[in-house]
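Fig. S4 source data, part A: sequence.
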Amino acid sequence: MSGISIQVNSKASLQVLNVGNEKTPVVVIDDFAVDVSEVIEYACSDVEYGPDSTSAYPGIRGGLPRAYVRAVLNRIYRLLFQVFAVPAGLGMKTVNTVYSLIATPEHDLSPAQCVPHFDTTGAYYLAVLHYLNPGGFCDTGLFRHRPTGFEKILENRREAFFSSSRAFVEANGPPEQGYIKGSDDHFELYDQIEYKPNRLVAYPGCLLHSGLVDPAVDINPDPRTGRLTANIFVDFS
């Protein structure tokens, strides 16, 4: 299936949301592709999955077909520059392009996997996420760090965020063992992006976020029946 192709839907529905107190833009495109069946079939037959050595993702990942990545980025390239105010002189590069499946049981999570995370502190590092399989899978939650009020962890906030987080854990103990599913004393869930098949979203990687994982539904390493997503991480420099 090396010749995999995807046709972008000319009638796709575009929204640009401004989330949280910081009014961070998030792109949401429904019915992004005319048909995702070939992309799903490729995930089920042509991909080797394993842990992602570049992140703490609680599951397994495998490489996306290049033709799919090119088609997606060709469609949204100009939109990303516009919505996220990327300086015109910067060029886009892909950092990681993977299928993703949540697969880690709650009892095997590390403390860092039990709290919201950010991908990077880079100002123009973006995560593009395409929800693929049908099913009632978990939404992507957006969180605010209560001690600092931070919703984005940019480089000039990194030290304050980690220092404050360590102080919170020292005073209150480690996070509850399991996936975070809503607000707690440390983090506030202020918005969430609903999982919809064939919905594509793009947001800054510095946003604090987490899948709102229901272990009974979302932990499934089978690409035919699990929470299969295509993740394209890009940076502008």
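Fig. S4 source data, part B ends here. The chain has a mean pLDDT of 96.
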